Amino acid sequence: MAEFIEKKRRKLCRFCENKIQYLDFKDERLLRRFMTERGKIVPRRISGNCANHQRKLTVAIKRGRHMAIMPFSSESYR
Amino acid sequence: MKLYETCFIVNPQSDEATIERHVKSVMDLITGRGGKIVYEDRLGTRRMTYAIQGMTQGYYASLIFEGPTTLNTELERHYHLEDAYIRYLTILYEGDPEQIRTAREALQTSLDRADQAAAEARREMREGGFRGGRGRRNEEDDFRPSRGRRRD
């Protein structure tokens, strides 16, 4: 058990660090970084985003999906 | 008045003049109803991630504008009546209006850091380190917690 606690370290929200307040749904390059190859949104516990930014991120990704900028799912996956 | 952003995709199969006319008509509608265009962003023809009405490409344009609340319904009606608009989206713009022009550049500079962070996150995910001790997952996308050993 001790080793698990040792392994655990505090992740910092990337957007808080960079002081980004607004996430543009058209910014495919940025949003793709928080998506798996299959097209799923990377959860907060893995990306390390704070609740506020994760919420903004998911909204941006979903808006991007509606505008066909982001994929709903990737077909390349088998 | 509040800031809004309207983004739409125009059928790219029509010629340039027609596309221009469709973009212009949206701009005229906004300015004609007491709105003011703050920023115009033409993303141009780009590939869509999935086909819409059999089309794989679309001409993207985005307008950030200030306007009365009634403008949204007018825009929707306008998009709806014309077949050339494949997709449209009007949202409340929550970014800093003074930084619209610089926001993009600021994003680009922070991209490298975000890239690094995401690569780290992916590696961590692959290694399955976040749950500790339960072994590696084969499928990268499987976020569900392990159900443990079956007891039957």
Overall pLDDT of chain A, averaged?
83
What is the 3D form of chain A? globular
Helix-strand topology string of chain A: HHHHH
Distance N to C terminus of chain B? 64 Å
Amino- and carboxy-terminal Cα gap of chain A: 37 Å
Annotation field: number of helices of chain B: 3
Number of helices of chain A: 5
How is the quaternary structure best described?
heterodimer
The residue fraction in helices of chain B comes out at: 25-40%
Q: Structural class, from secondary structure content of chain A?
A: mainly alpha
- The overall pLDDT average of chain B reads 81
Supply Rg of chain B.
Answer: 22 Å
Strand arrangement within the widest β-sheet of chain B reads 2-3-1-4
State the helicity of chain A in percent bands.
Answer: 40-55%
What characteristic shape of chain B results from the CA principal axes?
extended
Largest sheet geometry of chain B: 4 strands, antiparallel
Supply Rg of chain A. Answer: 14 Å
The largest chain-to-chain contact, stated as pair and per-chain residue counts, equals: A-B, 36 and 38 residues
Layout of secondary structure:
The complex is a heterodimer of chains A (78) and B (152).
Chain A: H1 2-7, H2 14-18, H3 28-32, H4 44-47, H5 51-66
Chain B: E1 2-10, H1 16-32, E2 36-52, E3 55-67, H2 71-81, E4 85-92, H3 100-127
Antiparallel strand pairs in B: 1-3, 1-4, 2-3
Describe the structure.
The complex is a heterodimer of chains A (78) and B (152). Helices cover 46% and strands 0% of the residues of chain A. The model of chain A has no long low-confidence stretch (mean pLDDT 83). The longest helix of chain A has 16 residues. Chain A is built from five helices and no strands. Chain A is globular and about 35 Å long. With 78 residues, chain A is an all-alpha fold. The radius of gyration of chain B is 22 Å and the shape is extended. In chain B, strand 2 and strand 3 form a beta hairpin. The termini of chain B are far apart. Helix content of chain B is 37%, strand content 31%. With 152 residues, chain B is of the alpha+beta class. The mean pLDDT of chain B is 81. Chains A and B meet through helix 2, helix 4 and helix 5 of A and strand 2, strand 3, strand 4 and helix 3 of B.
